[in-house]
Amino acid sequence: DTMTEGVIVRWNKKVGDTVKVGDILAEIETDKATMEFESPVNGVLLHIGVEEGKPVPIGHIIAIIGKAGEDISALLSAGKAPAKESPSPSPASTLVEKSSVERAHAIVEGRDRIKASPLARAMAKEAGIDLRQVQGSGEGGRIIKRDIEAYLSQPAPSPAIAAPTTYIEQPLTQMRKTIARRLTASMQEAPHFYLTISVCMDRAAEWRERLNTLSEVKISFNDLIIKACAQALRRHPLLNASWTGESIRIHQEIHIGFAVALEEGLIVPVVRHADRKGLEEIAKETQLLADKARSRKLTPEEYSGSTFSISNLGMFGIEEFTAVINPPEAAILAVGAIQPTPVVKEGNIAIERRMRVTLSCDHRVVDGATGAQFLQTFKSLLEVPEKLLL
């Protein structure tokens, strides 16, 4: 529903082929995934309206299916045509444009005429000097002969020599266009503020190791974080909300999105009803969704509808960062690396495995105290991880 255009990645049929309902006509790259497009009818493929690799706006005719030999000229003339590039200006149009600019300059000069003696004007014209660049010393600021001579005696400025550059133009994918559009809108429309807290992960790390000796599927730290967020959101529902412009919409279901990095950007698969699922079920689901995301096989239902998001860069050694809210959600949690950190405990220095997380909040929905209470609950759950089973 957020698409404005797509790209035909591949045509699986050619003009003249017989097709039936359910045949895969083409593969279309959306802003999130590559989808197979099935033929809705039986017939003959009479026309292909978009080349492979070309973007096409919503509503444009990409193909026509009918009876062999059927006249489709009326359909083609009625269909939406793609936007055409502006043609290069012809010499004649360039000349007209140049003349128009010169006339405009003449009008301005006539209205705000520069004061100069006839001799000074003649000297300036011969030397190619713009009189607007000359400071007049005559009566009333009038430019006279000596002003032109003084201007000509000034050393000419050295022309700036541009250093040669080399670069590669990387075309924007549909995913990158969507990321740019949505996150720019988020930063412009949602007043962000940020809250950071440090979590001791010693018990969570030990508890995870014990669970993984018993579980068939390996539970990651990210799975623990998703579960802790889900339980904290149940206690602090204003973080599981969105701004509509007319109201604050508090969602009754908790669907947590987690960012997965791809070469062309990132995508956010969604663990639905995360508060109702156990750790092993969450672990299986996140592994499956992450694999499908990297192979561009996610369905729209698997990457849409999140009510809260998590962005974890800890595996890259990032200690702390802030994330941009994924609209229309009210908050996103940025997770840093778990690192050995010296801390003071009862007057002594100790080493703990600590993780810094930063909560980005939409101030239209969430106040500072509300966000802080959410982080306190999140911290308490991970520092006593047995609570995640309750």
Architecture blueprint of SSEs:
Layout: E1 5-11, E2 18-19, E3 24-29, E4 34-38, E5 43-48, E6 55-57, E7 63-66, H1 73-78, H2 91-111, H3 118-127, H4 145-153, H5 174-189, E8 192-200, H6 202-214, H7 221-235, E9 241-243, E10 248-250, E11 256-258, E12 260-262, E13 265-267, E14 270-271, H8 279-294, H9 300-303, E15 308-312, E16 331-345, E17 348-362, H10 368-383
Parallel strand pairs: 11-15, 15-16
Antiparallel strand pairs: 1-3, 1-6, 2-5, 3-4, 5-7, 8-17, 9-10, 11-14, 12-13, 16-17
Q: Low-confidence spans: pLDDT under 50, at least 5 residues?
A: 81-112
Q: Estimate what percentage of residues fall within beta strands.
A: 15-25%
Give the helices and strands as they follow along the chain. EEEEEEEHHHHHEHHEEEEEEHHEEEH
Number of continuous helical runs: 10
Please characterize this protein's 3D structure.
The chain contains ten helices and 17 strands. It is of the alpha+beta class and 390 residues long. The chain is flat and about 100 Å long. The chain is 32% helix and 24% strand.
Give a summary of the structure in a few sentences.
The chain has 390 residues and is an alpha+beta fold.
Name some characteristics of this structure.
390 residues, alpha+beta
